Structures are given as C-alpha cells and as structure tokens.
Amino acid sequence: MHHYIAELGEKILDGGQINYEEALTLGKVHGADLHFLSAYAFKIREVYHGDRVDLCSIVSARTGGCGENCAFCSQSAHHQTDTKVEINLDEAEILQRAKAMEVAGVHRFDIVTSGKGYKLGDPEFTTLLDIFKKLREETKLQLCACLGVIGEAEAQAIRDVGVTRYNHNLETAESFFHQIVSTHSYKEREKTLMEVKKVGMEVCSGGIIGMGETFSQRVEFAFALRDLGVDSIPLNVLNPIPGTPLEDKEPLPPLEIIKTMAMFRFVLPKTNIRFAGGREVNLRSLQALGLVSGINGMLTGNYLTTKGQRISEDLAMIEDLGLKY
Questions:
Q1: CATH of the domain at 307
Q2: Per the record's keyword annotation, is Acetylation included, yes or no (predicted)?
Q3: CB of 300 within 8 A of CB of 311?
Q4: CA of 268: how far to CAs of 1, 12, 108, in Å?
Q5: Known binding-site residue numbers for [4Fe-4S] cluster
Q6: What is the number of structural domains in the chain?
Q7: Binding residues for [2Fe-2S] cluster
C-alpha cells in the first residue's frame, strides 16, 4: 500500500489531482502505512501552504434557540440541552475579545449567530454590520462571519463592511445529510455558498465527522467541497452533547480521524483545512498528529458551546512541531 500512497502523493505534488476511487482506496490504509499516508499529507501541505498554521477564533453573538433540528447541535430548540438563549451584541465586549485574540497571535476573527439567517434591514443584522465596521477600523484581523442563510444582498452588505470570508458549513455528505437535519435541505446550504461567491467573498465550509457516516461518505463530502471551490474547510469531530439525538454516538478512533484528515489533504491539496471543534476530546494526546497529517489551520480558544484548550497550549504544540503561526 505504501507504493500506492507514494504514487498518489507524487501525482499531487506534481500538480495533479486524485479521483474518487483513489481517495476511497485510502480508507483501507492501516498500520505503519497510515503514518506514511500522514507523512505524504504533511509534505503536500508543506509544498502548497508552507510551515505557517492559520489561526482563527470565534465569538457567539447569538447562542441557542435555533429553530433548525441539526442532530449534533446543542443550540437547537428541538433538543433538551443545557444551552441557554443568549444574545451578545455588545460592541465594546466583542471588540475587547477580538483585540485580545489578536494579541495572542490569532489571524482571523469570526462572529457567529445561531438561527436560520438574516435579511437586509433586520435590526440585529444592522447592529452586526456596525460591529464588523468597528473591528475593521480598530484591528488588523481578517474578519469572518457565520450568520446562517443569506442572499446576495446580505452577502454584499457583509462584504462592504470589511468581512473577507463567510462560513456556512455543508456539515456532511449529501447522501447522509437527511439523517442529520430535516428542517432545511443540503441544496439550501449550497445556495448560500453560491451567493457568497457571487459577491467575491471567500467561502469557508466544512462540517463534522464521526456522526455515523461511512468513510466513503467522507470522501463524497471532500469531493463536494472540491467541486464547490471552497477556500477554507473547518473539520470538526463530533463531541456528543447530552440532550441531542447523537448524545450516545460511539466516537471515531483517533487514527480514523487522522486518516480522514490526510484523505482531505490528498483531495484538496491547495485548500486551507483547519482543526475545529472536538479535536481535544477525540484526539486527546494525538492532536499534534493532525498538524502533521495535512492540517494547516486551527480554530483556537473556546467554541460556541464547548470549551477548547488554552491558546497557549495550541501555540506550544505548533512550535514543538517546528511550525509557525
């Protein structure tokens, strides 16, 4: 198998692409060959992205009370979780958080809201636009937004206040999507990504692995993101939340997660692929392996409703691997 991995790896390093069947074959990799796969993924990452790890941080401006029924989400009003509805549109507080992240070494800052989305003229949306303006004026951070379903007019308004990237996750493969959410469609998510691309913003779209999908569905997911031409892919690993339909889901083995990350790098050599939620819980002592298996970005600090490890620990891990931020 190591000869096959090397053949695929060299094709990618020479500027080529692998096909669906080749990516699917990577699911059979195990033992020492898995670490060989990781090494090639790391080499691909090094050639196309250098040795810098792109760091981003998020803040929730609206938490909980969402009318959608995503099976993994603690913020859904359909589930009985401990997440409370909270709205934080305090400009000074968000600005303070952003500046602290900038000092810590973060490159990007993302404001996230729960709920279906916004329309131009919504008072909350107008307030968010004002906050983004202030962030652009008072920090050097790259600004990202994750505000749900939007149309071209809303996307243009977000771009006009200085936001360069919009996050809207596909979450999983289209063939598995119906098992995770029924209140909206996969096509609706794709449509929002198209509206974002229309106005010239970068697209950040990824999802969650470990929700019960097969390896072939993860491959399907990776190719869907490649076909859409996304710029950044946050890869979350399911962190089961009590009260959600997935609360008892058996976790993926750490090496299966590493294999999946390496596969994503083989499929998407030039795309930013970042560690996101669930890495601490699922990879535990093997987190560093993600950064030497193709990952070149990291969501650092706390997540929306769960705690992350300290930023200082993430930075130490990056430095210990001889990487930069």
A1: 3.20.20.70
A2: no
A3: yes
A4: 21, 9, 21
A5: 66, 70, 73
A6: 1
A7: 144, 204, 274
Per-residue buried b or exposed e for 208-230, using 16+ beta carbons within 10 Å of the residue's own CB: bbbbebebebbbbbbbbbbeeeb
Does 7 reside within a domain?
no
Q: Could you read off the pLDDT of 217-274 as tens digits, one per residue?
A: 999 999 999 999 999 999 999 999 999 999 999 999 999 999 999 999 999 999 999 9
Q: Residues for the chain: how many in total?
A: 325
- The answer to whether residue 8 sits within a structural domain is no
Three-state DSSP state, 200: coil
- Domain membership of residue 73 (yes or no) is yes
Asked whether residue 14 is assigned to any structural domain, the reply reads no
Distances (CA, A) of 100 to 93, 95, 97, 164, 257: 11, 9, 5, 20, 31
Helix (H/G/I), strand (E/B), else coil: 285? helix
Q: Give SS3 for 207.
A: strand
User: Which residue range(s) make up the domain with 191?
Assistant: 26-320
* pTM greater than 0.85: yes
**From start to end of 15-157, where are the E strands?**
54-63, 86-87, 108-113, 142-146
pLDDT in tens, 182-195: 999 999 999 999 99
What span, in angstroms and rounded, lies between the C-alpha atoms of 323 and 325? 7
Asked whether the beta carbons of 231 and 203 are under 8 A apart, the reply is yes
Binding site residue list: 66, 70, 73, 144, 204, 274
